[in-house]
Amino acid sequence: MPDTLTPVLTSDWAEDQSWKLATYERGGGYRALRKALAMAPDDIITAVKDSGLRGRGGAGFPTGMKWGFIPQDNPKPKYLVVNADESEPGTCKDIPLMMATPHTLVEGAIISSFAIRANTAFIYVRGEVVHVIRRVQAAVAEAYAAGHLGKDIHGSGYDLDVVVHAGAGAYICGEETALLEGLEGRRGQPRLRPPFPAVAGLYASPTVINNVESIASVPSIIGNGADWFASMGTEKSKGFGIFSLSGHVAKPGQYEAPLGITLRTLIELAGGMRQGHELKFWTPGGSSTPILTGEHLDVPLDFEAVGAAGSMLGTRALQIFDDTTCVVRAVLRWTEFYKHESCGKCTPCREGTWWLVQTLTNLEKGVGREEDLDILLDQCDNILGRAFCALGDGATSPISSSIQYFRNEYLQHLSEGGCPFDPVASTLFAVEGVR
Amino acid sequence: MTQEATGLGDATYAELREIAARYPEARSGLLPMLHLVQSVEGRVTPEGIEACADILGLSTADVSGVATFYTMYKRRPVGDYHVGVCTNTLCAVMGGDAIFERLKEHLDVGNDETTADGKVTLEHVECNAACDYAPVMMVNWEFMDNMTPQSATQLVDDLREGKEVRSTRGPRIATWREIERVLAGFPDDRVDEGPGAGPASLVGLEIAREQGWTAPAGEASGTTGSPADSAAESAALADTGRAESETRQEEGHDDA
Ligand SMILES: Cc1cc2nc3c(=O)[nH]c(=O)nc-3n(C[C@H](O)[C@H](O)[C@H](O)COP(=O)(O)O)c2cc1C
Ligand code: SF4
Ligand code: FES
Asked: B205 by DSSP, 3-state: which?
């Protein structure tokens, strides 16, 4: 039984000058790269398959299997694209990782590129985080200077270039095919699939797209072995992951633990809820995953159990709200986000999110009738499964789940003609007992 | 379109070409090129659009279409300091809404407007991947963690008075144009400023250290039974609609 917390990716974040190559190498960094370069690329793919690593960007697709889809008989160049767009509301793990230890990501990108036989890799970082971009740029430059990147890496005959690319503000560019459009210098609108990125991705060439945390996990798997990774986690959700606690807990922050830890344990570690308040609702994996409540404190946070509880593990973005928070206000704000970020390509999402905001705005103000809740659910039905990409589906999650658990709170807005909550009470700077 | 006719000099043209040359296909440089245009011009200007179109062999309509899609590209001049207040749900609830209201009042501007002295452009922003530091502000895309209405007004006052201001995670705040240049891929000298991580990023690690908790010791590489040997099996593992549809799609191509 592994320990409650298992820092691997986060273990060096507190080191002095943690972002420097020298610091990283002192801690054993780039040893896995040398080991990997002595392996057959297919054996690396096998090791990642055997480890059970599943994508950390939200969907949980098995990483090794994704790499195995790259058609190696295709004569076109192969590409690795690291998805560092981290924009799903609540998600805040990739950004601190890249700021603290960007070399973990760079080493992972080199090993992963070698495995899929790519000679060019891209790290697509959202643009709104300049200090993170500096650290990644510098890490790539240091890796070139040390011979970890460039031509004939450590005499292996393998060449790799890494390009750091800053995005320009668009949540949808986290969706992998929209990201490719952005990386090709176009509007970030998702692509029709097929063809799939593994066959025709960047520049219509075979492309693997993986999340930062997925790629950063690779050096530890190669260094310590697939068994080591698989010794953590649950039966079908192997390994460790960074759990991001935010909101009304005493100590919000990053907690790296085997998959399957519960929110009850995490809240205990985080010093409990804010003094004098109780848990009301939470997101297990970002705003696109249906909200859960206090009844779900003991759900193991792995892909299967959170799914069985009616939500999704997503990005392990645990946004915690206490009893001072108005769920209608929270849901309206998320819905406004989806409306703003809808790329406009398909009607169900473009028009649907607009209608959702209209209906919710009225409800929040206490304007409307009880039947409007059914209209809202109907509108969700018209989006879910009909939208072109998962952004549209995600937009419906907070609405349908909040009506499921807090129907009465919506009705209370109608009966009281407005919001019954005091927004000041839920702020960080609210003085206890003083309104 | 000749270079002389634009406000952009030869040096900028050379740098725009340099960006395009980083990529296997030049058009991939467009996003960073537009960042560079903003660093020189203070916004995306018609001249900047023409320069990008010229270098990439695109129409100005194509480039415009891209520039208008992304929120970081601005058509109106931005002040020296772009001040973003996160008003996505978590930050809004934790105080972001109150901060944004206070700043609008204090600066006498609306959303996406610039103060009369041209110093500060105020905008509400979406989740900036720092929710564990809520309420979060961004100044020229540097983190300002755990803000209050009071610390926020102090911050903008300091910026307007030209005092040296630092991100709560270390680096000195540069001007918006200087930062746009970094985003275009031309690093400045601030990478080593500040720590590796802010305090919230380290709370789990600190608890693990206190408790003596670690990951298991590493072993030699070996293999276990793979938890997912086929795409179908992994689809059964996948808990999300997103994963399922991605799995179906990947499988589809596998059959093809
Ligand atoms: C609207 C939307 C936004 C997304 N944002 C991100 C993101 O910011 N980062 C990320 O890694 N994946 C994001 N994804 C998931 C990606 O499409 C993709 O599944 C992921 O990058 C694959 O990497 P993984 O298998 O390593 O998780 C997003 C998906 C959607 C539909
Ligand atoms: S679902 Fe929304 S974001 Fe996705 S393609 Fe349709 S309009 Fe664009
Ligand atoms: S909600 Fe503000 S940083 Fe995430």
From this structure: helix
Ligand nearest the Cα of residue A196 is 1
Structure tokens at A278: 């109780």
Q: Which residues contact A226 (CB under 8 A, 6 or more apart)?
A: A47, A48, A50, A51, A52, B221, B222, B223, B224
> Is residue B135 reached through a cis peptide bond, with omega within 30 degrees of 0 on the bond before it?
yes
- C-alpha torsion angle, residues B196, B198, B199, B205 (rounded to 10): -40
| Rounded average pLDDT over A73-77 | 97
Q: Confidence class of residue A431 from pLDDT cuts 50, 70 and 90? A: low
Q: How far is B187 from chain A (nearest CA, A)?
A: 6
The atom of ligand 3 lying closest to the CA of A92 is 4
Q: Is B66 exposed, middle or buried (0-12, 13-18, 19+ CB in 10 A)?
A: buried
3-state secondary structure of B156: helix
Contact A85, A98 (CB under 8 A): no
Q: Does A230 touch chain B (CB under 8 A)?
A: yes
Q: What is the pLDDT of residues A82-94, one digit of tens each?
A: 999 999 999 999 9
Say if CB A128 and CB A92 are below 8 A apart: no
- Rounded CA-CA distance B249/B241 in Å is 12
Chain B contact for A352, CB < 8 A? no
Under 8 Å between Cβ of A46 and A62: no
Please give the single-letter amino acid code of residue B181: R
Strands B137-139 and A292-293, sheet pairing: unpaired
How many residues are there in chain B? 256
Q: Three-state SS for A79? A: strand
Which residues, listed in sequence order, are joined to residue B124 by a DSSP beta bridge? B85
Q: How far apart are CA A157 and CA B193, in angstroms?
A: 36
Q: Is the distance from CB of A68 to CB of A49 less than 8 angstroms?
A: yes
Contacts 24+ apart (CB under 8 A), A423-426: A423/A326, A423/A329, A423/B93, A423/B97, A423/B98, A424/B98, A425/A324, A426/A248, A426/A321, A426/A322, A426/A324, A426/A325, A426/A326, A426/B93, A426/B94
Whether A414 contacts A363, CB under 8 Å = yes
Amino acid identity of residue A220, one-letter, is S
- Alpha carbon distance B137, B88 (integer Å): 11
Residue of A160, A156, A147 lying closest to A119 (CA atoms): A160
Task: Return d(Cα A165, Cα A150) in angstroms, integer.
Answer: 17
Q: Where are the alpha helices (DSSP H) in A238-370?
A: 263-269, 303-308, 327-341, 347-364
Does the beta-carbon distance from B201 to A96 stay under 8 Å? yes
How many Å from the N-terminal Cα to the C-terminal Cα in chain B? 47
* CA pair distance A397, A232, nearest whole angstrom: 30
Instruction: Establish whether this prediction's ipTM goes over 0.85.
Output: yes
Query: Cβ(A117) to ligand 2 under 6 A?
Result: no
* Alpha-carbon separation of residue A408 from A287, A292, A334, A357, A412 (angstroms): 21, 16, 20, 20, 6
Contact A98/A126 with Cβ under 8 angstroms?
Answer: no
A14·B249 Cβ contact <8 A = no
Per-residue tokens: A342:
């809808």
Summarize pLDDT for A321-340 with one digit per residue, the tens. Answer: 999 999 999 999 999 999 99
Could you tell me how far CA B187 lies from the centroid of its own chain? 15
Q: Are A383 and A396 in contact (CB under 8 A)?
A: yes
Residues of chain A contacting B84 with CB distance shorter than 8 Å: 128
